[in-house]
DNA sequence: ATACATACC
DNA sequence: AACTGGTATGTAT
């Protein structure tokens, strides 16, 4: 959503003479910290270096798929009759009124976002990195998830958040939502003052810098909402660039998307978001997966599967859980993701049972050149 | 209705 | 991209 409001990036209709500008995934200039950098030059260099790689080809495949979805949407849009449009416009208007009636402005939510979290945590444990350009990664690619970082950093800021909201929501490793309504009322302080206080406490107690936003619900506290693919579709197929557009063209959204998707778009347009603290739900599945350099070596693949099955079994038993359907996840050397599942007559949790069924699923897919295997129990 | 596969967040 | 887990959706049976 922030991207939609700012409306700066031109994701479509890029001249063919500059192909690197259409390649959005590896390098996006939307991120902060790009001041004083020759953006186009960097983008071109990254493009030249990525071109032809397996990963790159898969990204192109996904971009083509996205274009197909957009074209498909355009086509369906063109087939709507005047009557259809009037009909769905009515539906949209009614739905907007209903959604508006649910607006709750009684709560104050605060969204915290740790700045450059992984790099910042790494720098804490290795101060010599301070001021140097760095990325967290390995296996010839840039990644982030790092268990050391997790343990170190997550614990670091959590006590601060808890002082303001015992039930704060961890949205991801580096993001959290706090309901600060009571804090504001009891101490008679403004929300922006609380935001500043939290930022200062986090820095004093962890050395990590974070940003904090405030709003009457979680959507507005974060100013978030719509992802890259959806944004592209909305922009190019519907010419929807702003929240206002989402509401004005709600009829088309209701006509072409499922009711729940249309509701989602209209809510974003209205700035409606979660105001309650959902109670922690019970876990419904447990999974694990590993990436490695792509191989066809079946002994290696079965060995990986055995390791994953053992870990999954241990994790399940740690929480006293069992699963009745077992899903095998594969990613081919060309980055295509596949899942294969089997539902069993009885729940299982032993590593032998898991491996037995996972092996059968894998066997049916071989030979194949794979770069990831995963297993999931539901 | 159930199982399975995929996309998206 | 990595890894986890949930939801939504579509398809086949």
TrEMBL record:
Q: Is Ubl conjugation a UniProt keyword of this protein?
A: no
Domain of life of the organism encoding this protein:
Eukaryota
One annotated GO biological process: error-prone translesion synthesis
Q: Which PROSITE patterns match?
A: UMUC
Q: Under the cellular component aspect of Gene Ontology, which terms does the record hold?
A: nucleus
The record's listing under InterPro entries reads: DNA/RNA_pol_sf, DNA_pol_Y-fam_lit_finger_sf, DNA_pol_Y-fam_little_finger, DNA_polymerase-Y, DNApol_IV, Rev_trsase/Diguanyl_cyclase, UmuC
Cite the GO molecular-function annotations of the record.
damaged DNA binding; DNA-directed DNA polymerase activity; metal ion binding
Q: Which reaction does it catalyse?
A: DNA(n) + a 2'-deoxyribonucleoside 5'-triphosphate = DNA(n+1) + diphosphate
Instruction: Tell me which EC number(s) this protein carries.
Output: 2.7.7.7
Which enzyme class, named as a word?
A: transferase
Keywords of the record = DNA damage, DNA repair, DNA replication, DNA-directed DNA polymerase, Magnesium, Metal-binding, Nucleotidyltransferase, Transferase
Occurrences of domain UmuC (ranges): 109-223
Ranges that cross the membrane: none
Q: Does the keyword DNA damage apply?
A: yes
Q: What protein name does the entry list?
A: DNA polymerase kappa
Q: Which organism is it from?
A: Chenopodium quinoa (Quinoa)
Q: What is the lineage of its organism?
A: Eukaryota, Viridiplantae, Streptophyta, Embryophyta, Tracheophyta
């Amino acid at each position: 959503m922030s991207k939609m409001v700012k409306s700066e990036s031109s994701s479509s209709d890029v001249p063919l003479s500059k192909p690197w500008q259409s390649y959005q995934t590896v390098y996006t200039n939307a991120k902060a910290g790009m001041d004083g950098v020759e953006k186009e030059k960097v983008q071109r260099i990254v493009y030249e270096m990525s071109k032809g790689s397996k990963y790159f080809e898969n990204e192109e495949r996904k971009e083509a798929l996205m274009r197909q979805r957009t074209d498909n949407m355009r086509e369906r849009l063109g087939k709507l009759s005047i009557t259809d449009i009037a009909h769905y416009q009515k539906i949209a208007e009614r739905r907007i009124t209903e959604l508006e009636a649910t607006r709750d402005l009684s709560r104050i939510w605060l969204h915290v976002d740790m700045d450059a979290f992984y790099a910042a945590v790494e720098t804490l444990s290795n101060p010599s990195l301070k001021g140097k350009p760095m990325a967290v990664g390995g296996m010839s690619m840039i990644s982030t998830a790092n268990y050391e970082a997790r343990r170190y950093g997550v614990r670091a800021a959590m006590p601060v958040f808890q002082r303001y909201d015992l039930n704060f929501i961890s949205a991801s490793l580096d993001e959290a939502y706090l309901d600060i309504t009571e804090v504001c009322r009891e101490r008679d302080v403004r929300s922006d003052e609380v935001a500043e206080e939290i930022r200062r406490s986090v820095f004093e107690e962890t050395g990590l810098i974070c940003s904090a936003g405030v709003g009457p619900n979680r959507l507005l506290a974060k100013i978030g909402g719509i992802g890259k693919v959806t944004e592209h579709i909305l922009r190019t197929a519907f010419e929807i660039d702003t929240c206002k557009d989402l509401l004005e063209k709600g009829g088309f959204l209701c006509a072409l998307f499922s009711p729940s998707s249309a509701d989602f778009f209209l809510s974003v347009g209205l700035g409606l978001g979660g105001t309650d603290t959902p109670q922690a739900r019970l876990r419904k599945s447990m999974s694990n997966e590993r990436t490695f350099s792509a191989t066809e070596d079946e002994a290696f693949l079965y060995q990986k599967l055995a390791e994953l099955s053992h870990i999954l079994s241990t994790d399940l038993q740690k929480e006293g859980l069992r699963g009745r359907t077992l899903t095998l996840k594969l990613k081919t050397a060309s980055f295509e993701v596949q899942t294969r599942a089997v539902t069993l007559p009885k729940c299982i949790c032993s590593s032998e049972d898991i491996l037995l069924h996972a092996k059968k699923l894998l066997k049916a897919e071989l030979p194949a050149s794979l770069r990831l295997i995963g297993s999931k129990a539901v």
